[in-house]
């Protein structure tokens, strides 16, 4: 099976709402606490695995062609990630209060 991916960089002045790229059913999601480093392309080129270090939410599901995953990643000045389907989820927590959990 082939895996395709796209990284969408949203500059500070950009629209910061992410809409699904396909009609899909969410099967699980997980908040992964982490850093909030800049994700600007110039910075990302110099920090290996930057997107794996920053705070993120991994959203997995199915669409008409199989598996689909979306991963919004927090960054400096935009660390809060909100999900329309889970208003209780809190991101951008201090390290001593990190809560890891699969939904």
Question: What is the gist of this entry?
Answer:
This protein has helices at 41-44, 50-53, and strands spanning 25-32, 56-63, 66-70, 101-102. 8% of the residues lie in helices and 22% in strands.
Can you offer a commentary on this structure?
The chain has about 100 residues and is mainly beta. Helix content is about 10%, strand content about 20%. Strand 2 and strand 3 (about 65-70) form a beta hairpin. The protein is globular and about 35 Å long. Mean pLDDT is about 85; it is low at about 95-103.
Q: What order do the helices and strands come in, and which of them pair?
A:
Blueprint: E1 25-32, H1 41-44, H2 50-53, E2 56-63, E3 66-70, E4 101-102
Antiparallel strand pairs: 1-2, 1-4, 2-3
| CA-atom Rg in angstroms | 14 Å
Strand order, main sheet: write it out. 3-2-1-4
Strand content: 15-25%
Contiguous uncertain segments of 5+ residues: 97-103
Reading the helices and strands in chain order gives EHHEEE
Shape: globular
Q: How many β-strand stretches? A: 4
Using brief descriptors, characterize the structure shown.
103 residues, mainly beta, globular, disordered C terminus
């Amino acid at each position: 099976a082939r895996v395709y991916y796209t990284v969408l960089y949203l500059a500070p002045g950009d629209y910061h709402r992410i809409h699904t790229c396909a009609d899909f059913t969410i099967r699980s999601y997980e908040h992964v606490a982490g850093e909030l480093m800049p994700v600007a392309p110039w910075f990302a080129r110099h920090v290996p695995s930057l997107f794996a270090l920053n705070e993120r939410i991994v959203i997995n599901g199915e669409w008409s062609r199989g598996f689909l995953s979306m991963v919004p990643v927090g960054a400096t000045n935009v660390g809060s990630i909100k999900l329309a389907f889970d208003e209780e989820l809190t991101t951008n927590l201090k390290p001593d209060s990190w809560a890891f959990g699969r939904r």
